[in-house]
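Hi, here's the filled form for the chain we discussed.

Project: internal
Contact: R.S.
Residues: 475
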Amino acid sequence: MASAALGPLSLCWVLGPAAAAAPNILLLLMDDMGWGDLGAFGEPSKETPNLDQMAAEGMLFLDFYTANPLCSPSRAALLTGRLPVRNGFYTTNGHARNAYTPQDIVGGIPDSELLLPELLKKAGYINKIIGKWHLGHRPQFHPLKHGFDEWFGSPNCHFGPYDNRERPNIPVYRDWEMVGRYYEDFKIDLKTGEANLTQLYLQEALDFISKQQASQQPFFLYWAIDATHAPVYASKQFLGTSQRGLYGDAVREIDDSVGKILNHLQQLGISENTFVFFTSDNGAALISAPKQGGSNGPFLCGKQTTFEGGMREPAIAWWPGHIPAGGVSHQLGSVMDLFSTSLSLAGLQPPSDRQIDGIDLLPVILQGKLIDRPIFYYRGNELMAVRAGLYKAHYWTWSNSWEEHSKGIDFCPGQSVSGVTTHTQEEHTYLPLLFHLGRDPGEKFPLRAMDFTIMEENGSDKAWLMNIMILEHIN
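And the returned structure, exactly as it came back:
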C-alpha cells in the first residue's frame, strides 16, 4: 500500500529551524458532538464563529473517524493508537455490543497498554487531562497512573443525580483528591440546563497553558469536556442564545471557549509552537435529539452504530505558521492517528512491541499528501464494515434491537432504510452491502451485483483492495 510518511528525524526540514523545540500538543475532544454541528461543516445557523475561523486558518478533515461509536472505547483508542479490540475496550458477552465503563463497572484501561502521555514524558512533556477520563474509575486506572501529571475532571460522564445510598453521585477530582461530586458541589440544573462546568474547564486550560509557558516546558493538554453529552448543559450567559435550543447553547459555549484558548496561545506568543486538533469521540446521540442531541449532517444514524453518522467526526487541525490556511483534506483519518501524529511531533517513534493502528498525519497536514489506508468500523468485538477509498462495505448491519426500539430507543430516528438500518443483526459477509460514499454519503442506495461487474470491467481496484485489507487486518 502506498504510504507517505515522515519520520521524526526528518521532520525539522519540513517545519523549519524553529522546530528544534518540541511543539506543545493540545487535543480538544468533544463528547457526542456530530459532524454537522459546526458552521464549517454546513450547520445552517452558523453559530460557531471561532471554530469556523479555526478551520479557515487551519485544515478541515471531512473524512475523519472515531474507532468505535461509543465514549470509552473511542477514548482508549485515541490514547493508545490502537483499536478497542487490541486495547481491551470491547466485550464478548453480547455480539456487536459496545463496551464502556460506567460507575458500576470495575474494569478499565489495562496496565499493559502504553498511553500517549506516558510516552510523551520521555520527551519532557508535562501532561494534563481536563474533563472526562472514562477509562476506569478504580485507583489502578487513575489517569495519573497512566502518564498524566495533572487532572481536573471526572472518571465518568455527569449522569445523575443519584440517591447517594445505593449509588453515589459521580466524583470530580483534582489530581488524586476528590474535590466534590456532580449535582452536589458542582451544580447541574436539569430543569434549566444551567451548569458552570465548561467555564471551569476553560479556566483550567488557560491557567495550565500560562503556567507551562512560564516554565518553558512543552505540554500535552487533553481537553475532554462533556457539555454536549446528555443531559447537555451551558452556563447562564449562554442559556437561550442559540436557535438550536439547549444543545446549541452548549455548542456556542464550547465555541466561545475554544476561541479564548486559541487567542490565549496567540497572546502568549506560543501559537506557532502549539499543535491543536479539534474532534469528537463519536457521532451525535440521535436518541437524545433534537433537544439533547446534535446533528450528523447528511449521514445515516448516530452514536452506537457503525453507519457514517455514528463514526464520522468533525475534525480541524490548527498550527499557525505550519499548516497552510484554508486547507481541506479528504484523507481517511482516525482518532488513533492523533497518537502517532503526537509522537511524531515530539520526535518519538511509536512502540515497536505492539500493533499500532494510527498513522502519522503530518505529511497530510503539512504537505497535503494522501495516504492509502482503510477505516475499520467495529461495534464491540465485531468488524461491522470497512471503508477503502470512497467505497464502504458492510459485513453486518444493525441499528438496535426490536426490544429496545419498541421502548422508544431509536439510534436512527426518521432515517429507516429498508435492509440497512435493521433491528436484527444481519450478516452480509459473503455478499457485503456496498456503498459509494461520494455519490451516496447517507448510505441509502446499496450497489447492486451489476455495479460490482461494472467496477471490475472498468479496472476498479477497490473491490479486491477491500478484500486484501480485511484479510491483512484479520491476520
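Let me know if anything looks off before we file it.
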